[in-house]
Amino acid sequence: MKREQKSLTNKGFSLVELIIVVAIMAVLIGVLAPQYLRYVEKTRLQRDNSSIAEVANVIKMASAEEAVITQLASGTVTYNFGATGMTGVGSTALDAEIKATITPGDVKITSNTYSTAAPVLTVKINSTNNQIEVEATGWMETPNAGGSTTKKF
Predict the structure, then answer these.
(1) Are the CB atoms for 109 and 81 separated by under 8 Å?
(2) Cβ(102)–Cβ(58) under 8 Å?
(3) Cβ contact 119:128 at 8 Å
(4) Is the dihedral of CA 41, 45, 46, 47 positive or negative?
(5) Is residue 86 helix, strand or coil?
(6) % of residues, the chain, pLDDT over 90
(7) Sign of the C-alpha dihedral, residues 55, 56, 61, 66?
(8) Considering all CA atoms of the chain, what is the largest pairwise distance in Å, rounded to the nearest integer?
(9) How buried is residue 80: exposed, middle or buried, by Cβ count under 10 Å (0-12/13-18/19+)?
(10) What H or E segment, with its residue span, contains residue 90?
(11) What is the rounded distance in angstroms from the CA atom of residue 118 to the CA atom of residue 72?
(12) Is the pTM of this model over 0.85?
């Protein structure tokens, strides 16, 4: 019986083996990439919603100031959000309280879900119970859900 000995010069992978590995990796990337992109978008949307909720909480805390209540008695105030930061902040009493707590330019929208229309915060006094209401119109809980809602804080 004669044994076959392997050649010591054949130490690498064959071209077929390399092509099979590349094909398997391509299939894995094709399956996992969309899941990863959905995960990233969901995380961005949660971060944006958290930032907007933080601004709403700052507004609620600022409503303890008498100057803010006087300002809101004359009408509603709206704040917009975008990729460049929060806009609509001027020089009123409420705006001064917001600027003392957060930097409006740092509250930026990063998710693709809000890229066309980000939520708008509306602050007003409810005429029936004289409580300050903060509402976010255009609020979305899940990425690319299709319909937006109004969230009250």
Answers:
(1) yes
(2) yes
(3) no
(4) positive
(5) strand
(6) 40
(7) positive
(8) 104
(9) middle
(10) none
(11) 23
(12) no
Q: What's the token pair of residue 117?
A: 């229309």
Identity of residue 121: L
Cα–Cα distance measured from residue 72 to residue 123, given in angstroms and rounded to the nearest whole number = 8
The angle formed by the CA atoms of residues 118, 51 and 39, to the nearest 5 degrees, is 75
DSSP string, 99-152: HHHS-GGG-----STTSS---EEEEEE-TTT--EEEEEEEE-SSTT-S--EEEE
pLDDT, tens only, 6-27: 666 667 889 999 999 999 999 9
Cβ count near 138 (within 10 Å): 18
Q: What token pair was written down for 57?
A: 């909480």
Residue 117 main-chain phi, psi, to 5 deg: -145, 105
